[in-house]
Amino acid sequence: MYMALKHSHMLFVALSVAFLAIRFLLSLKAPALLQNKFFKITPHIIDSLLLLTAAGLMWTIQQYPFQTPWLTDKLIGVLAYIALAFMALKGRTLLLRWLGFIGALSWLVIVAKVAVTKTPVIFG
């Protein structure tokens, strides 16, 4: 069960990041395409499944944020990723959007490092 959840979670992480990159590039080059129903609904489905697999993993290993420091770091990193991804897609200026996109990807690297090493970076 654990391995299936872990691999599903990693798949949804990859899909979420891919959709962020695609939507970011479309927002720069062809913003009208973002009004397509596919680009409005699919990221929410992927991110919901990502959160469900994360919850399933926490339940399976019996470790939770604010109880386990590395999961607390991961949660904070994911919240930073979400905020910066929002800025990348909705920022007022091109500079802010690029900073949001690069920042979101940077936080993703931190979250991945914490997930692999199980060593907190922020609260460690």
From TrEMBL:
Coiled coil: none annotated. The chain crosses the membrane at residues 37-59, 71-89, 95-116. It comes from Rheinheimera marina. It comes from the Bacteria. This is SirB2 family protein. Keywords: Membrane, Transmembrane, Transmembrane helix. InterPro entries: SirB.
